[in-house]
């Protein structure tokens, strides 16, 4: 049985793709150790949508049972119709744009959409932190995600009475001069907080520049930034930053603790949101393949079974393959993501 992995394994935001690969690989290796005949084939999209027609042909030719991926919304925007054309069922760990919600296709995901995540993040910013003036900076290179996230965040923040301005938009990956210009444009609005909807590396660069500003606004980042590279690259500049993510790093569920131990033994580092979500995505497919009836399409199996075991919460699909994965708010304290409890 072959499964394909589709993610950006090279390029400026490869930290996300590599995390997805490692989480999925651990699930496959565990299944093989338990006696299942499985192979995971890796396909690098390099975060370049123009490569996807050729990649789709290669994946289809490999006769895989399903695809784990893609990892970003900008890739998903091109991938979903191609996958439909080639009959490639895909389960994404980390694609969240609301653009893909409520569609009857071959695309499933183990996370919720930007509508839930950005709305929750805005409510936290305004009601929990009391920030009344908000400026948002987003990366147009992953516009399918960042535009959707920004729209929901700004709508909710405005509805709660916050003063929100038109977002500052750039195309990443950021260069220092470009980052400086974007930040100056954002700070002109004299915000209480800067809300960054960007990759970990771009968010870290913007945070470092913001900390040197006399205004020193508070900082908040969307889920995309919540890999360990944010802390590695941001250093002291990201201390105190609020970061939303869709798993609880402090969870004590037995399945998560077992995964944590196995992952650290295998890869000699701690897992982040991409690794956890990719492990869940792989497990959904492994569980579904075991329950697939003779002659039954895998999509039909997923929609018949609906509920699958996840590391921290059950993964329950609706009729369109969407799942309401909870959001967890964290704050970077002493060089680590600390869960903000209610």
TrEMBL record:
Pfam families linked: Peripla_BP_6 (PF13458)
Domain of life: Bacteria
Keyword field: Signal
Domain annotation Leucine-binding protein: ranges: 2-325
InterPro entries per record: BCAA_transport, Leu-bd, Peripla_BP_I
UniProt family annotation: Belongs to the leucine-binding protein family.
Official protein name in the record: ABC-type branched-chain amino acid transport systems, periplasmic component
Organism: Serpentinimonas maccroryi
